[in-house]
Specification:
Blueprint lengths: L12 E3 L4 E4 L5 H8 L15 H13 L4 E6 L5 E11 L2 E9 L7 H16 L4 E7 L3 H10 L2 E5 L3 E6 L1 H10 L9 E3 L1
Parallel strand pairs: 5-6
Antiparallel strand pairs: 1-2, 1-9, 2-3, 3-4, 4-5, 6-8, 7-8
The chain binds coenzyme A (COA).
The site of coenzyme A has 15 residues, from strand 5, helix 3 and helix 4.
Length: 188
């Protein structure tokens, strides 16, 4: 018997409650580059080249890949407020990160964007678990994931490694239902 693991498909557009995710394109290079070279926002991210051309090449390469989905998070007005990426599928677990919200994003955008990531990966792609790592110094973010139910499974000097399973994801989706009360609408 063969087992087919889920694929990390890209989606053109995902509509949540107040947020809309759009697949990142080369046209988003300036926005992404601005976020990722912002000293405050990028403190705990892997280094981004100061060269905008490198960001354009990265997005060009991204468009050819079939195992990751990189989204621009937009607000109700359609204005970009951040990014998030699903990548590194391992069996029925996906990794997510590259998660950034610009200053002034709505206060509920962090929770809603996390709920949209899980709704997409679980309900639409068929994943059942997630894994990710967070810099130890990025306490605000690992606390966020721990409140969601993620469990710390390993650490290095620099990073904590987390996993969250189907039941914990489901419980968090229920607990925070008011931030994403309805099924997401996905356009592939
Ligand atoms: C990662 C990131 C997008 C998370 O967004 P954030 O707004 O910092 O997330 P927060 O945990 O502060 O949550 C936002 C609000 O929701 C609240 N909230 C978060 N989780 C909650 C929960 N489980 N229950 C109730 N309220 C919650 C927070 O208290 C916060 O409210 P406040 O603004 O009154 O303090 C943002 O910190 C960021 O852009 N960081 C820089 C890039 C980065 O380091 N990314 C992570 C590496 S992948």
């Amino acid at each position: 018997m063969s087992m087919l693991w889920p694929n990390l498909r890209k989606a053109k557009r995902i509509k949540g409650k107040n947020l809309v995710f759009r697949d990142a394109t080369i046209e988003d290079a300036v926005f992404i580059h601005g976020l990722r070279t912002n000293e405050e926002k990028s403190r705990y991210l892997s280094k981004t080249s100061p060269d905008l051309e490198a960001q354009i090449r990265w997005l060009h390469n991204y468009a050819q890949t079939k195992d990751q989905a990189y989204f621009i998070i937009n607000d109700t007005f359609g204005d970009p407020i951040g990014t998030v990426r699903l990548y590194d599928p391992k069996e029925d677990s996906f990794c997510w990160g590259s998660w950034i919200l610009k200053d002034g994003a709505p206060q509920t955008a962090a929770i809603e964007s996390a709920l949209i990531v899980y709704a997409y990966a679980i309900d639409h792609l068929g994943f059942r678990r997630a894994h990710f790592d967070v810099r130890k110094e990025n306490e605000r973010v690992w606390r966020f994931h721990e409140r969601f139910g993620a469990q710390r499974v390993a650490e290095t000097d620099i990073d904590y490694y987390y996993e969250i399973g189907f039941d914990k994801i489901g419980a968090a989706r229920n607990r925070y239902k008011k931030f994403l009360p309805n099924p997401i609408e996905v356009e592939f």
